[in-house]
Amino acid sequence: MNKQQLIAGNWKMNGSLEANDALVRALVAGMAGAQCTAAVCVPAAYLAQVQMLKSGSALELGAQDVSQHVQGAYTGEVSAPMLREFGVRYAIVGHSERRQYHGETDALVAEKAKTALAHGITPIVCVGETLAEREAGRTEEVVKRQMAAIIHVNGHCISEICVAYEPVWAIGTGRTATPEQAQQVHALLRKQLAAATPHAERVHILYGGSMNAANAAGLLAQRDIDGGLVGGASLKAADFLQIIASARAA
Ligand code: PGA
Q1: Distance (Å, rounded) from C-alpha 114 to C-alpha 48?
Q2: What is the reported pLDDT for 1?
């Protein structure tokens, strides 16, 4: 299905008031006339700043995580209703760095996606295999297990989520999946979604992992790749704008 692609930047724990100012101003100026949806997922501390800087532009705001709880005694957490107050439209959930360094399980990630949806935020749910899992021929089993947990908890709302296929071995390594490798996994994720919803074609399945200005067009040309989740290259305005320009319109 032809739908406008989504290019989301994941700043991770990078930025400063000064650097964000220059980056967002350059993005807003450079993306006028962009054919795709573009978003930046920024550290929670900078939501207010970026909300202000991007105001009046088509650039969307995203967060990098969201609590599964709505409010209460959860020190350090940020809730979906709080994110909404800053105009947040997307929240990454289940990024491999959170799964790895914060022990986030498939079940927790699914709960976070559910809470985000319930408060009008589109979760960008990350799935992906490690290098050891790929080499052991377990890619399909791993991503299907991760996806099944999300489908199980989110039921008929599943067509409202975004998925990001991010092979862990490709993140921040400069070792991108080939367009064919990525398409293969995207196609099986689409099939899994199609078994759960008649609207699987509507779901954006993004690719993430060393996407850059040079390789974006090849990846984004694949049938089941509906956009990108971009880490390192989203911190450089020229590179991120180049990726946005490579994306497909509706
Ligand atoms: P990368 O990160 O583009 O720097 O590989 C992608 C991600 O982790 O979302």
Answers
A1: 24
A2: 56
Question: Nearest-CA neighbor of 239 among 208, 205, 213?
Answer: 213
CA 60 to chain centre: 12
Mutation test of ligand 1: which of 6, 7, 11, 12 has the most ligand atoms closer than 8 Å to its C-beta? 12
Q: Is the CB of 10 under 6 A from ligand 1?
A: yes
Give the start-to-end residue ranges of the domains of the chain: 6-246
Q: What is the CATH number of domain 6-246?
A: 3.20.20.70
At which residue do the structure tokens 């990098």 appear?
A: 64
pLDDT digits (tens, 9 = 90+) for 80-122: 999 999 999 999 999 999 999 999 999 999 999 999 999 999 9
d(C-alpha 91, C-alpha 240), whole Å: 19
Inter-residue contact 243 to 228 (CB < 8 Å):
yes
CA R_g for the chain: 17
Residue type, 26: A
Q: What is the pLDDT of residue 249?
A: 73
User: Ligand 1 centroid to 232 CA: how many Å?
Assistant: 6
Cα–Cα dist 166/18, whole Å: 30
211 lines ligand 1 (CB under 6 A): yes
Ligand 1 close to Cβ of residue 230 (< 6 A): yes
Q: How does pLDDT run across 108-163, given as a tens digit for each residue?
A: 999 999 999 999 999 999 999 999 999 999 999 999 999 999 999 999 899 999 99
pTM of the model: 0.97
